[in-house]
Automatic annotation (TrEMBL):
Domain 2Fe-2S ferredoxin-type: 2-78
Keyword Metal-binding: yes
Key word Iron-sulfur present: yes
Gene3D superfamilies tied to this protein: 3.10.20.30, [2Fe-2S]-binding domain
PROSITE patterns: 2FE2S_FER_1, 2FE2S_FER_2
Identification of the protein by name: (2Fe-2S)-binding protein
GO molecular function, one term: oxidoreductase activity
Taxonomic path: Bacteria, Pseudomonadati, Bacteroidota, Chitinophagia, Chitinophagales
InterPro entries to which the protein is assigned, alphabetical: 2Fe-2S-bd, 2Fe-2S-bd_dom_sf, 2Fe-2S_ferredoxin-like_sf, 2Fe-2S_ferredoxin-type, 2Fe2S_fd_BS, Beta-grasp_dom_sf, Diverse_Oxidoreductases
Keywords: 2Fe-2S, Iron, Iron-sulfur, Metal-binding, Oxidoreductase
PANTHER family for this protein: BLR6218 PROTEIN (PTHR44379:SF2), OXIDOREDUCTASE WITH IRON-SULFUR SUBUNIT (PTHR44379)
Domain of life: Bacteria
Length: 153
């Protein structure tokens, strides 16, 4: 089985995994970074979203052999204390999550959105967040929290 040296949350981590193993499973099952969630496995829900060189990607669709030297950021790496990133602060202030299952993916998608568009329009927010599903229907509060981040940046 090949061994991969991966840049994850600013650290170099080694993972022994089949070349075609999705990054999602490398994170969860090999590296024990279980904040990234499995929802659908087919790029339809966004639960598994992480950043690859600052861009939001679906980790269920990214084979470990294609990660290379890219910088991967997971929800565990958004801030060191798990609370001080502006997105985390806004989520807490607005009280966004219900069951919480989709929220790591939502927050990482927002991080990718704001890397791309620091002051996104409503249209950009709508289209970038459309693929992140929430069975609990927290969409209104997600939008409020995104506005909070933008207003305070
Ligand atoms: S688990 Fe990857 S998009 Fe649903
Ligand atoms: S908060 Fe429950 S699925 Fe989104």
């Amino acid at each position: 089985m090949p061994s991969y040296s991966l840049n994850i949350n600013g650290k170099t981590l080694t993972a022994d995994a089949d070349a075609d193993m999705p990054l999602l499973w490398v994170l969860r099952d090999v590296l024990d970074l279980t904040g990234t969630k499995y929802g659908c496995g087919v790029a339809s829900c966004g639960a598994c979203t992480v950043l690859k060189d600052g861009k939001a990607i679906r980790s269920c669709q990214e084979q470990v052999q294609n990660v290379g030297n890219a910088k991967i950021t997971t929800i565990e790496g958004l801030s060191e204390d798990g609370a001080s990133h502006p997105i985390q602060k806004a989520w807490e202030k607005i009280g966004v999550p219900q069951c919480g299952y989709c929220q790591a993916g939502q927050m990482m998608n927002v991080a990718g959105l704001l890397n791309q568009y620091p002051k996104p329009t409503d249209e950009q927010i709508g289209s970038m967040m459309a693929g992140n599903l929430c069975r609990c229907g927290t969409y209104h509060r997600i939008k409020q929290a995104i506005k909070e981040v933008i207003d305070n940046s």
